[in-house]
Amino acid sequence: GWCGNDKVLFTIMKDFWGQGVLWLKEEWRVYRGLKKQHQLEYYALGSYYDREYTIWHTQEEKDGDMPPCAQLVQRMNGAWIHQQAPQDDFLQYVNNQFKLIIQGNEDTGLLTTLAAVIDIVHDVQTRAAIEREHQEEER
Q1: pTM score, two decimals?
Q2: What CA–CA distance (Å, rounded) separates 87 from 99?
């Protein structure tokens, strides 16, 4: 059941608009508690072409060329290929493989959770693209 806003430990959000050319770089934010409490824990910025995210504590750290506190990289295997060009084929059954590099004194559990959420969101988007393609073919 619903536990109420006073029990929310973290909020993980993907920005609607990203950064970079045509806003193609995904931006993710992790807040302690609710977003409205303005307690940013981590800021993640994706790359243009592959599933690679660099993670800082704040966007200001990134803008100030501070070293990142973590990096998430998806290995280029069949699952990665399937997400780039979604098709209903055997590649959808290949597991994603990620490498999460975390600097010392960081919240490994929270960063692992962020990686899992990013992966789940991409899996849902890929499945939705396949569904749309099937619906268009049936028309």
Answers
A1: 0.78
A2: 25
Q: Do residues 51 and 80 lie in contact, with contact meaning Cβ atoms separated by under 8 Å?
A: yes
pLDDT, mean of each 10-residue run, the chain (139 residues): 72 85 84 93 88 94 96 68 51 69 96 93 78 77
Asked whether the beta carbons of 14 and 53 are under 8 A apart, the reply is no
**Cα 57 to Cα 43: distance, rounded to the nearest angstrom:** 6
- Name 100's bridge partners: 72
Task: Please report which helix (H) or strand (E) contains residue 16, including its range.
Answer: none
Q: Are 45 and 52 in contact (CB under 8 A)?
A: no
What does the block give as tokens for 48? 């243009």
Say how many C-beta atoms besides its own lie within 10 A of residue 13's C-beta: 12
Q: In what order do the strands lie in the sheet with 70-74?
A: 10-14, 27-32, 40-46, 52-56, 70-74, 98-102
Helix (H) or strand (E) holding 43: strand 40-46
